[in-house]
Each structure stands twice: as structure tokens, then as C-alpha cells.
């Protein structure tokens, strides 16, 4: 800095900052990740300052060329970030002034780091949302691809982790497609609120300089301009919303990971995981552990924790900007990095795994998966649901005593349970026939599932 004390705001200060404070308050160790967005924002700001006559065209060109040079140096690793310059914004501005001289001192006209950081962060989150959307679509494609592999396979469906009713494997795959579709929609929706330009709201009250905020918004691809400077200076709801959308992605992945960890056990034996996505044990030579799935489940904890931190961070902050807000970035970066990596690995695991069809089908006649279908058959014969439930419950108790599936009970058992029951019961008994008896929209009925698979294929493949 020419003829200035160590810090650019040093005029009012009579000495240097305590080194412990520099270390304590710095953010450049993490917000350097905003450098590309910071340069993009500054270039647009410089163009606008030229358009309103604050900069000459020549000055603007110098500033833009200087900023682009700095971005190049940061990208190739030759730029040295300095902790005493606190954050990415000051580091870049300082380097610009060093490189191009006093003209660089004009760049910060009509803006503050408060609107600058919010702009950079919004641009960063926007980019992250766009990347993540692609990755989530890849994951949905992996599930839809599985539908072709697992056509016709029937799985036991569970509630309370107890066998409940049969479901088609494809119904199961598409359940996850639907969950991730809502996650995608949440991200798209959140992007609209992220994509509003705060730049030009300056420190908190706006500026007396006749800036053209719409021009900056247009150049940076923002859909609108934040209307109230106090609001934009003080809030991080856009970042929290993003962190929340990420948390639900992580939660969905965690559910799936937990399920597959169970399915890959000897006890279930439903699934063979791709070995490239498993790890071994240092002591037990036979082990092939589902560590990727466990870490997808485990890393959900930090994503939830980050959301919690952000919510607590803004609680009780008076308007407008407070330095507390600087703590937002490590949390958001961590959630975005974590979820991006989890989604990417999940796609690979979904594609590489194989269902052990033999083991699954051998055990399908356990657990009376067809009992509810039989009850609905009885309802179809005019018996009220509560009575039918009672009657079939008694039949199941008989079958349990005899240790046989319902389909193996003799006709007399059914007829003594209720006179309306005849040999037609066998048409709905057994898992395969039970599946075929389903009829409602959104159910596991084969024609319903086939329609859904076709719709997903059309959408994604
Ligand atoms: N590093 C700061 C942050 O992340 C930038 C804004 C600093 N503004 C200030 N008035 N000190 O929030």
C-alpha cells in the first residue's frame, strides 16, 4: 500500500493490528475459494463504473486486465495470499493496486465488502447448485438403468424393518428417483432466491453514487436485484436454504446407504457390492467392508451439523452486517463438498452393485408378504375391512403354528375361517400373485411400475 499504514482502512488507526487478531479474524484461508467469483463480480462492477462515468474506458480496461491476470495467477498457484490482508477481497484488491497502480484504488467505488462477499457467495452457491444438479441427475440415471437390469425381480418390502408386503425391485429403485427429484426441485427453487444481486447495497444503506445495479445483475446473470440494502447486508437465508436442500440430499443418501449396508450382510444376503467401492480389514483377511456406504451415512452427520451451525449463527443478529456472518462459508463449503462427493460415489455404487436374486427369492415366502392381499381379496367378497383383518390374522396364526406359507394351507382352513373363501384364494397367494393383484395408482402393480419406468426413461435417458 502506498503511503498508508498496514491496512487499507488504516487512516483512523494509529498502529498495527495485534498479530493474534489478524490470525483470529482472517478468512482468506477458506474464502480464497471465492476468488473466481470475486473477480467476476469486480469485472462487472468495473464495467458498470465505466458506463456511469466513474472510470474512463482506459481505466476500466486496465482494471479488468489486472483482475484477469490475478485470477490466472491464483488458478496456477503462483499468487500468494496474505493473512494480514484478511480476506479474498482485500487480497485481490491489494494485488490489483500493486500491479496497476493508483487506478486500482477506484475499483471499490460504490461498494463495500459486505455486498461484495454476499455477491461472491451467491455466485459460488449458484455454481455449486448447477454442478450438483448434474450429479443428482446422474444418480437418478443410475437407478433408472438398474430398472432394466432388475426387471421382474420381487423384493420383500418392510415397515418397522419387519417383512410387510412384496414390492418390485423397480418400484424400489424409482422410490429413490422420486426422492432425489424433490431434492433437485428444492435446489432449483433455492437457486431463484440465491440468484438475486446484492452488489450496490454497499455497507448497509446503499450509496450516494449513481450506480446501475441492473447492469451488473445482467452481466453476472442474476435474475433480479435485492431491493433492500439493510436486508441484503444482514441476511444469509439464501445460504441456509442451500444448506438445508443439501441436508435432505444427504438424508436420502444416508437412508439408502443404511439399507444397502444391511442388504450386503450375510444375514440378508440381498446384495453384492462392487469391490472397488469396498475396503478390507487390517486383521481379518476375509472382510469386504461397505465403508463407502458407511461414510455416506456418517458424513450426513456433518451436513446436519453445518445446517445447525448456520441456523444458530444468524439467530439474534441485529441488522445489518455483523462479522459473525463470516463463519457461514466453512459450513456451506463443507456441506457442498461433502454432498457432491457422496452423490458421485452413490451413482457408482448403484451402478456397480448386483442383487443376489437367488437368495432374495428363496426367502420370499417367509414373513407372510401376501397376507394383506388375501385380506383385500376377502374385502372384495363383501367382508368389512376390520372383520377381514381379524379373520386373516387368525389364518396367519394357524400358518405360523404349522410353519407353512399361507399358500400351503389346505382349502378347509380357509373355508372354516370364512365361508366366502373358496379355491380362488390361491389366485392371490404367493408373492408373485400378490404382486399382480395390486391395482392402485403409485402402487407396486406391474403395469403401474412399467408406466413409471417408461416415464423416467423418457425423462432421463
Ligand atoms: N470476510 C468477511 C465475511 O466473510 C467479508 C466482509 C467483511 N466486512 C467487514 N465489514 N469487515 O463476511
How would you concisely characterize the structure shown here?
The protein is mainly alpha-helical. It has three domains: 17-109, Orthogonal Bundle (Fumarase C, Chain B, domain 1), CATH 1.10.275.10; 114-152 and 165-362, Up-down Bundle (Fumarase C, Chain A, domain 2); 371-460, Orthogonal Bundle (Ribonucleotide Reductase Protein R1, domain 1), CATH 1.10.40.30.
Instruction: Strand order, main sheet: write it out.
Output: 1-2
Q: Whole-number average pLDDT?
A: 96
CATH superfamily of the largest domain: Fumarase/aspartase (Central domain)
Percent range of helical residues: 55-70%
Elements, N to C (H/E): HHHHHHEEHEHEHHEHHEHHHHHH
Low-confidence segments? 1-5
Question: What CATH architecture of the largest domain do you see?
Answer: Up-down Bundle
Rg, nearest Å:
31 Å
Q: Count of helices?
A: 18
Number of strands: 6
Bound ligand species: arginine
The CATH C-level name of the largest domain is Mainly Alpha
The overall number of domains is: 3
Distance between the termini: 56 Å
How would you describe the overall organization of this protein?
This protein is mostly helical and 461 residues long. The chain has three domains: 17-109, Fumarase/aspartase (N-terminal domain) (Fumarase C, Chain B, domain 1, Orthogonal Bundle), CATH 1.10.275; 114-152 and 165-362, Fumarase C, Chain A, domain 2, CATH 1.20.200.10; 371-460, Fumarase/aspartase (C-terminal domain) (Ribonucleotide Reductase Protein R1, domain 1, Orthogonal Bundle), CATH 1.10.40. The protein is built from 18 helices and six strands. It has helices spanning 19-25, 28-31, 35-51, 57-76, 88-100, 113-149, 169-194, 213-220, 229-234, 237-263, 291-314, 328-352, 357-362, 371-380, 385-402, 411-417, 431-437, 446-460, and strands at residues 154-159, 162-168, 196-197, 224-225, 271-272, 354-355. Strands 1-2 form a two-stranded antiparallel sheet. Strands 3-4 form a two-stranded parallel sheet. Strand 1 and strand 2 form a beta hairpin. Helix 3 packs antiparallel against helix 4, helix 3 (35-51) packs across helix 6 and helix 7 runs antiparallel to helix 10 (237-263). It is elongated. Arginine (ARG) binds next to helix 6.
Amino acid at each position: 500500500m502506498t503511503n498508508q499504514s498496514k491496512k487499507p482502512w488504516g487512516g483512523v488507526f494509529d498502529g498495527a493490528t495485534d498479530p493474534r487478531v489478524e490470525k483470529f479474524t482472517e478468512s482468506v484461508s477458506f474464502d480464497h475459494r471465492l476468488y473466481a467469483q470475486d473477480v467476476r463480480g469486480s469485472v462487472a462492477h468495473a464495467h458498470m463504473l465505466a458506463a456511469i462515468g466513474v472510470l474512463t474506458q482506459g481505466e476500466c480496461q486496465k482494471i479488468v486486465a489486472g483482475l484477469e491476470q490475478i485470477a490466472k495467477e491464483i488458478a496456477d498457484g503462483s499468487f500468494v495470499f496474505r493473512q494480514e490482508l484478511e480476506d479474498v477481497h482485500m487480497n485481490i484488491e491489494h494485488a490489483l493496486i500493486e500491479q496497476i497502480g493508483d487506478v486500482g484504488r477506484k475499483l471499490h467505488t460504490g461498494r463495500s465488502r459486505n455486498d461484495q462477499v454476499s455477491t461472491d457467495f451467491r455466485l459460488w452457491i449458484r455454481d455449486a447448485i448447477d454442478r450438483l444438479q448434474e450429479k443428482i441427475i446422474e444418480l437418478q440415471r443410475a437407478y433408472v438403468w438398474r430398472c432394466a437390469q432388475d426387471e421382474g425381480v420381487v423384493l420383500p418390502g418392510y415397515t418397522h424393518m419387519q417383512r410387510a408386503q412384496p414390492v418390485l425391485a423397480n418400484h424400489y429403485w424409482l422410490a429413490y428417483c422420486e426422492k432425489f427429484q424433490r431434492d433437485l426441485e428444492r435446489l432449483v427453487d433455492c437457486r431463484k432466491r440465491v440468484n438475486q444481486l446484492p452488489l450496490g447495497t454497499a455497507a448497509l444503506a446503499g450509496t450516494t453514487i449513481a450506480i446501475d445495479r441492473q447492469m451488473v445483475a445482467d452481466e453476472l446473470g442474476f435474475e433480479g436485484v435485492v431491493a433492500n440494502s439493510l436486508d441484503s447486508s444482514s441476511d444469509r437465508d439464501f445460504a441456509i436454504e442451500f444448506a438445508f436442500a443439501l441436508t435432505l440430499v444427504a438424508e436420502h443418501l444416508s437412508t439408502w446407504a443404511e439399507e444397502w449396508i444391511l442388504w450386503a450382510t450375510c444375514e440378508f444376503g440381498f446384495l453384492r457390492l462392487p469391490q472397488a467401492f469396498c475396503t478390507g480389514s487390517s486383521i481379518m483377511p476375509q472382510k469386504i467392508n461397505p465403508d463407502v456406504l458407511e461414510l455416506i451415512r456418517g458424513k450426513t452427520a456433518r451436513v446436519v451439523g453445518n445446517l445447525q451451525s448456520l441456523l444458530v449463527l444468524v439467530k439474534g443478529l441485529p441488522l445489518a452486517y455483523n462479522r459473525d456472518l463470516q463463519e457461514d462459508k466453512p459450513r456451506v463449503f463443507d456441506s457442498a463438498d461433502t454432498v457432491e462427493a457422496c452423490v458421485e460415489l452413490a451413482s457408482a455404487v448403484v451402478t456397480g452393485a448386483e442383487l443376489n436374486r437367488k437368495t432374495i427369492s428363496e426367502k420370499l415366502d417367509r414373513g407372510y408378504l401376501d397376507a394383506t392381499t388375501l385380506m383385500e381379496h376377502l374385502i372384495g367378497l363383501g367382508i368389512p375391512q376390520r372383520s377381514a383383518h381379524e379373520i386373516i390374522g387368525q389364518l396367519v396364526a394357524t400358518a405360523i403354528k404349522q410353519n407353512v406359507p399361507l399358500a400351503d394351507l389346505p382349502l378347509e382352513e380357509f373355508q372354516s375361517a370364512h365361508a366366502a373363501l373358496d379355491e380362488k384364494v390361491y389366485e392371490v397367494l404367493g408373492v408373485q400373485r400378490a404382486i399382480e393383484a395390486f391395482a392402485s395408482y403409485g402402487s407396486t402393480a406391474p403395469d403401474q411400475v412399467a408406466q413409471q419406468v417408461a416415464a423416467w426413461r423418457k425423462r432421463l435417458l
